[in-house]
Amino acid sequence: MKILLVRLRLIGDVVFTTPLIAALRRAYPGARITYLVEPAAAPIVAGNPHLDEIVVAPRRRGAGRVLDDLALARRLRRARFDLVLDLHGGPRSAWLAWASGARERIGYDISGRRWMYTHIAPRARDLRPRHSVQNQWDLLETIPGWAGGGPDRERDRIEMPVDAAADLNMEARLDRAGVRPDDELIVLHVSAGNPFRRWPEPFFAETAAAIAQGGDKRRVVFSSGPSDRAAASRIATDARARLGAGARRIIELGEFDLKELRALIGRSALFVGGDTGPLHIAAATDTPVVGIYGPTLAARSAPWRPASIATFSIERTDLACRPCDQRTCAPGDFRCLTQLPPAAVIAAAEEALGRGAARSIR
Predict the structure, then answer these.
(1) What's the CATH number for 166-355?
(2) Which residues contact 156 (CB under 8 A, 6 or more apart)?
(3) Can you tell me the distance from the alpha carbon of 220 to that of 250, in angstroms, rounded to the nearest whole number?
(4) Could you tell me the pTM of the whole model?
(5) Angle at CA 259, nearest 5°, toward 87 and 55?
(6) Which residues have a Cβ under 8 Å from the Cβ of 265 and sit 6 or more positions away?
(7) Where do the CATH 3.40.50.2000 domains begin and end in the chain?
């Protein structure tokens, strides 16, 4: 049996599909499973032990995109897949699923795309408080004869294995930055894909300084997307100014890729960040997490992991405008984040560090 999984675009959304990959492997141990993904998120599944092949879809624009998709469609059709699951639901992924020519094609019930599938999975029209992993699982349960059961947080973990080379590289970088094996490393991810998910920079600086003040062995490092490196540098400068003599507890490692970020989080005592890709990568580790949620709901996108691992979700639950579609801020002041005080995040961080006090970066 040949199975194709299609999930394009965002890093976090690809992360949420990894429990489903393992479930397919359990249900069909002899199947050949291929994953179609775009370049930015390819490192998420590149080392997945349940996959036989990764196909990376080019992400050009204009006429180049059309040519790429035609070539990709020919490649998929030649592979003769028996089953395709469109984990995305966008126009491009739906067309590629249809163009594969697979005997069974499963996708979400979306107007204008139903005809491209042979089986349809339900999809809620509203932003209901149901986790994304469960929403993905609806596709599995649409497979004719599916007997694999539903998702379980203990068994069906988020997976992104540590890349050995990236881990060694991160160890060397930490050593050069003066981080010792017995230091307590805290990662703060300070950027997001859109302004609706960005916690204010002064809030991150206040949080970093407060956490760093908690112990002489604490070391705080900032991660960010490439376009937000300047913001990360500003936050680091602000945090150092707040710390005064303890400024050396704030360290900068520069840029690192997704594999290095996974290695860094795995070596850390705590991860703090908004609802974006790195938060979901953190779910693949046993590192305690404090998630900051603005327009999105923790019920939909909090780290999918066993309850025994310290995981805190900080969000405003008293705002009528939450959740939103992140196109227009109705109040105009992004209050779901600008009115979410650092004190709540700091308190959760200290509790998480208390639970995981025995962890070290090595």
Answers:
(1) 3.40.50.2000
(2) 19, 20, 22, 23, 133, 304
(3) 5
(4) 0.93
(5) 40
(6) 187, 271, 278, 281, 282, 285, 287
(7) 2-140, 166-355
Q: What is the pLDDT along the chain (362 residues), one digit of tens a residue?
A: 999 999 998 899 999 999 999 999 999 999 999 999 999 999 999 999 999 999 999 988 878 888 999 999 999 999 999 999 999 999 999 999 999 999 999 999 999 999 999 999 998 776 778 999 999 999 999 999 999 889 999 999 999 999 999 999 999 999 999 999 999 999 999 988 788 899 999 999 999 999 999 999 999 999 988 778 888 999 999 999 999 999 999 998 888 899 999 999 999 999 999 999 999 999 999 999 999 999 999 999 999 999 999 999 999 999 999 999 899 999 999 999 999 999 999 999 999 998 754 333 33
What CA–CA distances, in Å, run from 299 to 18, 28, 73, 134, 249?
18, 30, 36, 11, 34
The three-state DSSP-derived secondary structure of 248-315 is: HHEECCCCCCHHHHHHHHHCCCEEEEECCHHHHHHCCCCCCEEEEECCCCHHHHCCCCCCCCCEEEEE
Contact 181, 141 (CB under 8 A): no
CATH number of the 2-140 domain: 3.40.50.2000
Q: Name the nearest CA neighbour of 116 among 74, 148, 88.
A: 88
CA 262/CA 279 separation, integer angstroms: 10
Cβ(132)–Cβ(108) under 8 Å? Answer: no
Let me know if 344 is exposed, middle or buried by CB neighbors in 10 A (0-12, 13-18, 19+): middle
The token pair at 281 is 């990568």
